């Protein structure tokens, strides 16, 4: 139950809460198959550490899921979160035509959230997102238990160059 006195804990989804390794191949080839990449998001396995972090943070924070997934995946994403036991929370998604780098898009969303109440922590796998958030003064937990964007060129390009996830 949201409580406007509690700070936000903001969590990324792909490669932080969900295991994207089974669908990354769709964007490693040319041309990239974004439709298939996103269509299979509903089939991602849960990253156990991500679920544990989300559950722990929900004890003292209101959860906000901040994802680079496009808005058109809202229904599947809400279902995936619920079906896999994630705590209730606000879901903020990338606009369907928003191609800004993840670090830019997510930092803008963090600033908007911070105008409502404190943002206690951001949990994200993307090193560039984490660096930008830390530079802006946010506390960051680098989700290094999932598919690391820095070691996956296709995921890194999707997040930072193509503004896709």
TrEMBL record:
Gene3D superfamilies cross-referenced by the UniProt entry: HAD superfamily/HAD-like (3.40.50.1000)
SUPFAM superfamilies: HAD-like (SSF56784)
Alphabetized InterPro entries for the sequence: Acid_phosphat_B-like, HAD-like_sf, HAD_sf
Keywords assigned by UniProt, alphabetized: Signal
Signal found in the keyword field: yes
Alphabetical list of Pfam families matching this protein: Acid_phosphat_B
Name this polypeptide is given: Acid phosphatase of HAD superfamily subfamily IIIB
Species of the source: Kribbella alba
């Amino acid at each position: 139950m949201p409580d406007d006195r509690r700070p936000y804990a903001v969590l990324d989804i792909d490669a932080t809460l969900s295991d994207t390794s089974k669908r990354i191949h769709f964007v490693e080839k040319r041309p990239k198959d974004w439709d298939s990449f996103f269509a299979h998001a509903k089939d991602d396995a849960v990253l156990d550490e991500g679920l544990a972090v989300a559950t722990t943070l929900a004890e003292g924070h209101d959860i906000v899921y901040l994802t680079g997934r496009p808005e058109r995946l809202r229904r599947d994403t809400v279902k995936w979160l619920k079906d896999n036991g994630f705590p209730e929370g606000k879901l903020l998604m990338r606009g369907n035509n928003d191609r800004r780098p993840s670090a830019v898009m997510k930092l803008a969303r963090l600033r908007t959230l911070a105008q409502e109440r404190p943002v206690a922590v951001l949990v994200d796998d993307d090193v560039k997102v984490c660096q930008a958030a830390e530079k802006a003064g946010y506390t960051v937990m680098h989700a290094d238990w999932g598919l690391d964007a820095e070691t996956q060129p296709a995921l890194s390009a999707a997040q930072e160059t193509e503004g896709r996830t």
